[in-house]
Design goal:
With about 160 residues, this protein is an alpha+beta fold. It is built from 3 helices and 9 strands. It has a single domain, classed as Metal Binding Protein, Guanine Nucleotide Exchange Factor, Chain A, CATH 2.170.150. Strand 3 and strand 4 form a beta hairpin. The termini are far apart.
């Protein structure tokens, strides 16, 4: 093994050892599904039949769409934003705002319809959220949003469908 590869592995191992303490130090938002939500469990084949390739990548494989690519960024009509996987309402249009990130953003969600977990994909802890019914990956929540919550629910547009009021 070359010396630089060995040192790189040592550094990565040291960083991995720090991640649990970083997670404990950072407050995390914990949401649990509402008790009356019946989970939707489908096979991978059933999900592939139900979703487009892009929706499958986002909802089932926790992918991320390209910033600015969703037509929902410009959606301003009254209504609700539903999970594209199972049609559960997740956000009201009243909570939508322009965050400047290129993804539909909301300062709050519909109670009981999202669940959260900590993810380390970017090597630092982030709060990832999912649809409480189907478990579909929606996006991440950050603590840089507007009042009254101070939160930014940053969502993949392809993971949502808009239902006008």
């Amino acid at each position: 093994m070359q010396r630089r590869h060995f040192l790189g592995l040592l550094g990565a191992g040291g960083l991995a050892g720090l991640l649990p303490s970083i997670a404990r130090a950072r407050p995390k938002l914990e949401l649990k599904p509402a008790a009356d939500i019946e989970p939707l469990n489908l096979s991978e084949e059933q999900w592939r039949e139900r979703l487009t390739k892009e929706q499958f990548k986002i909802l089932r494989e926790a992918g991320t769409e390209r910033a600015g690519s969703s037509p929902l960024n410009d959606e301003k009509r009254p209504g609700k934003f539903h999970c594209a996987g199972c049609d559960l309402p997740l956000f009201s249009s009243e909570a939508k705002y322009e965050s400047g990130t290129g993804w539909p953003s909301f300062y709050t969600h519909i109670e009981g319809n999202l669940a959260t977990e900590l993810d380390f994909v970017m090597l630092f802890p982030r709060t990832e959220y999912h649809c409480a019914r189907c478990g579909g990956h929606q996006g991440h929540v950050f603590e840089d949003g507007p009042k009254p919550t101070g939160l930014r629910w940053c969502n993949n547009g392809v993971a949502l469908k808009f239902v006008p009021a």
